[in-house]
Every structure is written in structure tokens, then in C-alpha cells.
Amino acid sequence: MICQCGHRVAELIVELLMNNLRRLMCLVLLALPCAGAGSLETGFVQPPSDCRPWVYWFWLNGNISSNGITADLEAMKRVGIGGVLIMEVDQGAPVGPVDFMSQKWRDLFRHVHSEARRLGLEVKMNNDAGWNGSGGPWIKPEQSM
Q1: How crowded is the C-beta side of 92, counted as CA atoms within 13 Å?
Q2: CA atoms within 13 A on the CB side of 52
Q3: Are residues 121 and 87 part of one domain?
Q4: Residues 28, 80 within the same domain
Q5: Residue 145, domain member (yes or no)
Q6: Minimal CA–CA distance to 72: which of 61, 62, 58, 53?
């Protein structure tokens, strides 16, 4: 249909609808990430568990204990940490009572996982070249990285 001024009315109506539809789609797409979060402030103050920050957790040269592990993890949970990346490191700390990968060390590592599950935290273990876990004087230079 053509109006008195020569414009095609149907084309104008379709163009108007399409522009409004584009605007509506943009609004919907922008609102989707916030749909379940309630508000930005709530999501920031109490982020979902998969958005909480992680921390490096350095175990200094075998200086670890069951009580210390529990206390550390409970403190991390209290301040909103979501997970830990454990690194057994030397860094000149005095040698502690728990040798890396000894039976006691593995028992304490199981304790970490048990406590992390109880608290809703995640745990990963890192193995860095040259640190307690993968390097030391027993590695010959031709075997090193």
C-alpha cells in the first residue's frame, strides 16, 4: 500500500517493528547475565561460588599440620576465598617435620581435601620446576629444564 505522499506504508511499518525488535533484543541480551543474580551489588558482595577468587597456598618446606590446615581453610572460607592452589616450596624456610610426599604428607593432603569439601572450597596442586616437588640437588644438570 502506498500513502498519498508516495511512501510504502507496509515497508515503514516493518522497518519500525524491526528497529523496536532490535532494541528489545539488545535489552534482553544485556539483562541475561543479571537475571539470576538479583543485583550487581548482591553479586559483588556475595558472589556465586564459581566466581570467588582463588589464592596461592604455599606450604613451606614441610611445615604443615592438621590443625594449621583446618585453621587456614576456615579463615579462607570466612573471607570469601573459593579455592586454593597448593605449592610445596622451599624458599629457605627451615625444614619442617613433614617430608614432601611422605605418608604423613599424603595423609595431610587427604585432610585438605576433606576439609575443603566440608567448607565448599576447591583445591588444586601445582608442581613447579626447581621447587620441593620437582627439583633439588638430586637432579643432575643434564636432567634439568
Answers
A1: 0
A2: 19
A3: yes
A4: no
A5: no
A6: 58
Co-location of 96 and 37 in the same domain:
no
pTM: 0.62
Each residue's pLDDT tens digit, 24-57: 665 566 655 545 556 777 777 778 888 899 999 9
What lies within 8 Å, CB to CB, of 69 at 6+ separation is: 108, 111, 112, 115
Containing structural domain, residue 6: 1-44
Assess whether 85 and 105 both reside in one domain.
yes
Q: Over the stretch 70-89, which tens digit does the pLDDT of each residue have?
A: 999 999 999 999 999 998 88
Length of the chain measured in residues: 145
* Strand locations in the chain (E): 54-60, 83-89, 122-125
